[in-house]
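To fix ideas, we reproduce below one chain and its tokenised fold.
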Amino acid sequence: MKTPFNLRAFALRPRPLSGLSILAALLVPGATLHAQALDTTRLAFDIPAGPLDRALNSFARRAGILLSFSPQATQERQSAGLSGRYTVDEGFAALLAGSGLQALRQQDGAYAIGATGANAGPLPQVTVAAQQESATGQLTGLVARRAGSALKTDTPILETPQSVSVATADQIEATKAMSLAEALDYTPGVISQASSFNRMVDDVRVRGFNLANANTGMLRDGMKYQPSVYDSSQEPYGLERLEVLRGAASVLYGQLSPGGVINAVSKRPTAEPYHELSADIGNNRRRQVTGDFAGPLSDDGVWSYRLTALLRQADTGINHIDDNKTYIAPALTWRPSARTSLTLLGSYQHMRTRFVAPASAALTVNGTIPRSFFIGEPGYDRYDSEVYSGGYVFEHAFNDDIKLRHNLRYFSGDAVFNYLSYGTLNSATGLYSRGVVNRTEKSEGLTTDTSLEMNLGGPALRHKILAGFDYFDSTYDSKRYAGTVSAINMNNPVYGATPVIGTTNNGSRTESQQFGLYLQDQMKLADKLVWLVGARQDWVDSSVTTYSNNRRTPARDSALTGRTGLVYLADNGLAPYASFGQSFAPQAGVDRLGNRFKPTESDQFEVGIRYQPQGGKTLLSAALYQITQTNGLTVDPVDATYSVQTGELRSRGLELEARSAFGRLELIANYAYTDARTTKSNLATEIGQRVSGVPYHAASTWAQYDFGGIGLPGMKAGVGVRYQSEAPVAGLNYQIAGRTLVDAMLAYDLEQLSTTLRGLQLKINAKNLFNRDYVQCVAATGCRYGEERSVIATIAYRW
């Protein structure tokens, strides 16, 4: 049964969305079973000739199925490979032709290899050849069923008592995400700043709380990453997936924003060869070349590698703002046995652009400032950053029940960050005054995480116990100077002025050492009830040195945080859950009496339900939550020049998400209702005020379809719709208007034209297809125009 859907009406006339109507829309596609779809769906395969066991592994991973066979059955057998589009049954038939073997489908939907003919008989003892989905490995499609961020273990999302979403590498590629924020455009509960800012740094809000750097929620490979948000941004092309754990999570990661964590998982070496080269061309003179190469370095698979690289030169829709980047990330894995692996991960990134200074709502909402206007000076403004990181991920299983993990990374970032800012308008002359900011930034961070995972118990009650400790040593040095410069006419700008820089350093140096011990137990009772309990003790030593007076302010904080949750696993695929978690975050400064401020403390209560049909590629989720953050700073009623810790912020909401792949259609749909506001303050005007830039309603959907079944082999199209309702801004007596944006994608495999073009694909992506004008604000003087329409054509070659 097809549901009529008027895309144009939805895109151009956004209406308030109710939770019930969105939930009904999300549940429509969930009934179709993936196992049935596999019988008729033809997927594209390009498997080279070689050993049969390697060919079968590649086939199973591409098809997204579980496969098992005896190594003796495939020993010394070769495969002619597979190229073209096949169903699962057709692919197995072609791969196994003449081998005397056949693929037998089991009752649970998995496949096993056995002998053909009358003497097939019982299958020999099997060993798993194509492993199930991994929380860090390659994943085909838009639907992830496992995640590692929520529990620091590779766990099915269905068994996790907290909201978690995964944006896969295939999703990042399909939507042509150019920043981490854009990669999360189709994730519920995530609100970002304008693309003109997020191309430079990663700055997003989750459930109304800001996640800007390692101390507030940005992770890389499960560990804290950059000490400062201004170091740089993470390149989405270098990621295997992005995991968003929503809500309080200090029990695993220490000091954090109560909004949760965003964990970027690096691309890693693969056991099967993979090669990709692509070139982009787009509006604003965009030119980009990327490459992704991976595979074994030795016949026995002990050594494997990955090399990911990007080179871009581009302008933007704002005059004199370019978007140039160089990125390279090598990785090497040593796997001497099935129980031991060591992966070295490195990266280098150089960004060259300019900062888009924020303006007031009065100048942007009414379109006073031209969209392409540049307030700075081309000869002065610059954002030039270099970031290096290097480390390793080590894992050793002593036996089937005890596993040791030890990870480490060093980070170094340098940035020159000079820009001119908006001042005041002289209505008589039409000239706009400008402020001057001159900054040099340097960050260093060393992070490590060591844990022991133990599986205990029997069929009736099983324990997965995780015990570990982590450490993060970070330094952020920021030298900041002010200056003066001549005014400029916005409507007829004449550039060439030279700013005069002052001599007073208004910056500071922040040093921090964080150490935490954590203990967690995932208990599973009779494969029906999952009970999670966890606790963590943190110690934080920090100091801030203010350069203007050379004053050093030391601080020492500690916190004990906890977490618990229950999940019930029903036979029909439903999994209701409930959980409680805590977060904390130290605060700098002292009160009127000289007492240091205590860390903020946050509690989260969440209830939800998930649905994952047996054997299918569908995951539906719904969650209700409330987060309360206490110890917030508010004005001291005795002396307004000081603060006291009686402020409170509360966020509550509803989140719905559907991810599904059935037949040739893949779908993402989500909705979030977020009510984040100040509930306690010594300023009466702040009580009840909502968090700036966070709308009540946000919804998005992305659907892509393979037209091979209707006579257009090799053709795939996608369309996305992103909606946000109007959003409040502190200090304004009105709200910033909402928006509905449309994205689109069209791809074609050129091998359909000629076999000599095998492996070539042409793809066109458009963001903000109808070039909708809109403004995004995080404060009354913190507004930027939204990104104009972008169109990018990509030609890619994969072999």
Summary: The chain has eleven helices and 44 strands. The domain at 32-130 is CATH 3.55.50.30 (Phage tail protein beta-alpha-beta fold).
